[in-house]
Amino acid sequence: MTALTLYNFNTPNGVKIHLALEEMGLDYETKPIDISQDEQFAPDFLKISPNNKIPALVDSQGPDGKPIALFESGAILLYLAEKTGKFLPSADTPSGARARYECLKWLFWQMGGFGPMLGQAHHFIVYAPEPIPYGIERYSKEAQRLYGVLDKRLGEAKFVGGDEYSIADMAIWPWARFPERQQVDSAGLKNFQRWFAEIAARPATTRAQEVLAAACE
Ligand SMILES: N[C@@H](CCC(=O)N[C@@H](CS)C(=O)NCC(=O)O)C(=O)O
């Protein structure tokens, strides 16, 4: 029996966790939660994810050997990195601690900024029942600014956390797949383009997207 059950749907936040699970070589089962059918409000799902959002993960063998349920993609990525000792530097040396905080800064930057702001841009551009120019401009401008911040960082380092691919890149990459959907012009962002292509070419990136799409068919 596989210990890890991922409750998920095919969205950028959902892709993050599959990137991690595939990179880490973990065995897991995916249970689709169709948010277009309001399955995220089912009482059994709310016991695992009280904020009624995917992704959520249950590990039947938590840190104390008992089952543990997690929601919030950043917390899940951190959990998986600590469980496997992969894709997040360990803090057991001073230089390791510094490298770890570099990754965590960018992980939290994604959770608090890049994801939510791009989500708002997408909402006003695609889902608003009527065009609201103020909302579209506010959030697409902010999305463009955030892409600029990312591009600048990737001009200093190979990956957002430094030399190595980490859970911070896994959190950001799925959101950066379709800049045009947020009316972002990424053509001139050469550091971003280099980073994006490098992660896209990883076999685990392909597998992650295929597994999630198949699970949610
Ligand atoms: N901060 C959360 C955001 C999760 C999130 O927004 N999930 C969306 C899909 S991408 C969802 O489940 N929406 C359903 C709802 O809001 O009812 C995370 O990173 O896990």
Structure summary, number of beta strands: 4
Are there runs of 5+ residues with pLDDT below 50, and where? none
Number of helices: 8
CATH topology heading of the largest domain: Glutathione S-transferase Yfyf (Class Pi), Chain A, domain 2
Q: The biggest beta sheet, please?
A: 4 strands, mixed
**Helical percent range?**
40-55%
Span between N and C termini? Answer: 24 Å
Main-sheet strand order equals 2-1-3-4
Category from helices, strands and their pairing: alpha+beta
Per CATH, the architecture of the largest domain is Up-down Bundle
Radius of gyration: 17 Å
- Binned strand content: 5-15%
What is the approximate shape?
globular
Number of domains: 2
CATH classification, class level of the largest domain: Mainly Alpha
Q: What ligands does this structure carry? A: glutathione
The overall pLDDT average reads 97
Question: Strand-and-helix sequence, N→C?
Answer: EHEHEEHHHHHH
Describe the protein in words.
It is a single chain. The chain has about 220 residues and is of the alpha+beta class. It folds into 2 domains: about 5-85 and about 205-215, Glutaredoxin (3-Layer(aba) Sandwich); about 95-200, Glutathione S-transferase Yfyf (Class Pi), Chain A, domain 2, CATH 1.20.1050.10. The chain is about 55% helix and about 10% strand. It has 8 helices and 4 strands. The chain has helices spanning about 10-25, 45-50, 75-85, 95-125, 135-155, 165-170, 190-200, 205-215, and strands at about 5-10, 30, 55-60, 70. Strands 2-1-3-4 form a 4-stranded mixed sheet, covered by helices on one side. Helix 4 (about 95-125) packs antiparallel against helix 5 (about 135-155) and helix 5 (about 135-155) crosses helix 7. The longest helix has about 35 residues, at about 95-125. The structure holds glutathione.
